[in-house]
Specification:
This is DUF4149 domain-containing protein. It comes from Enhygromyxa salina. Keywords: Membrane, Transmembrane, Transmembrane helix. There is one protein chain. By secondary structure, this protein is mainly α. The protein has one domain. It is about 80% helix and about 0% strand. The chain has four helices and no strands. α1 packs antiparallel against α4 and α3 runs antiparallel to α4. The two termini are about 20 Å apart.
């Protein structure tokens, strides 16, 4: 249950609250620096989600005793791995090649926005899978002491 909470917490707190707040706060620094400062936080929260999903995959079958739960946990680990190891580094690299103050070059901005949208879609899919696992956990029968 702790791994499930850590995975959901890193998505909600890290990716949905802290990273957008840090990227959007350009009152003290310019937009390029704000995005560069948000990059390590984004990567660390993605690593937390990935680690929590891997732990969840390891314990889901024994914890929930349902075949679908183990499959969902494996799917969550796969989505988190693809996001952290594939999509997120490419999205940050694409944003690093853009001047957000001058908003140029437009072609690279469009490519970076598409990658960021894919990243957000994978986060949404991961959140849905983790919420489905939470639903399995809430409906699971308590284990008897003899098991």
């Amino acid at each position: 249950m702790l791994a499930l909470g850590l995975a959901l917490g890193s998505i909600v707190l890290g990716h949905l609250i802290l990273v957008p707040a840090l990227q959007g706060d350009t009152s003290l620094v310019d937009a390029n620096l704000a995005r560069a400062l948000a990059q390590p936080l984004s990567l660390r929260t993605a690593e937390l989600a990935l680690a929590a999903c891997v732990v969840l995959t390891a314990v889901a079958k024994h914890w929930l005793r349902h075949n679908a739960a183990a499959s969902l946990a494996l799917l969550a680990a796969g989505i988190a791995g693809v996001d952290r190891l594939g999509i997120l580094p490419r999205a940050h690299e694409a944003w690093s090649r853009v001047d957000l103050v001058a908003m140029r070059p437009q072609v690279r901005i469009d490519a970076a926005e598409q990658l960021w949208m894919i990243h957000e879609a994978t986060l949404a899919a991961l959140a849905v899978v983790l919420l489905a696992l939470a639903a399995f956990a809430s409906t699971a029968k308590p284990k008897s002491r003899s098991e």
